[in-house]
Structures are given as C-alpha cells and as structure tokens.
Design brief:
This protein has about 80 residues and is mostly helical. The protein has three helices and no strands.
Length: about 80
C-alpha cells in the first residue's frame, strides 16, 4: 500500500473493507463515495477487494463434557 502519510494507513484499510462490503452488496453509488475518500487519504494503488478472514478457530470443548458447568460458572454459584 502506497500512502503519503503513514498515519492514514488505518483509515485506508477500513475504507478498503467498507468498499468490499459495498461491492458485494451491489451499491455502486457507495463504492464511488468510498473511492473518493480513498483518493483523499492518499491511496494511489489500484483498489483490490481485501480477502476475508480465514477459517475460524478450533472448537476446544468436546461434546462429552458439554453438560458440565465451567469452573467460572461453578465458582459464581458458590459465591
């Protein structure tokens, strides 16, 4: 990402995510507005759709222990 002012990197990253949502939803008018803001904040590269997050984390609780209360919940009941 080429940015004239490094302080604007977070703003540009947020605008790129916002733009991706508008593109996915088909809101062309909003995409144009976000593109204007990207230019204002100094984003000079071609606009790409940012990649989404990767797969979620692993499930840590197993099904055999699902009915047992957590230690925190048990402590609150005793208090």
């Amino acid at each position: 990402m080429t940015v004239e002012n490094p302080a604007n990197e977070n703003m540009i990253a947020g605008l790129l995510r916002e733009r991706a949502v508008y593109v996915a939803a088909g809101h062309a008018d909003r995409v144009v507005q976000v593109d204007e803001q990207l230019a204002y904040y100094g984003h000079t590269e071609a606009v790409e759709v940012p990649k989404g997050r990767t797969a979620g984390g692993k499930q840590t609780a197993d099904a055999s222990n699902a009915d047992a209360p957590s230690p925190q919940r048990a402590a609150r009941r005793r208090a």
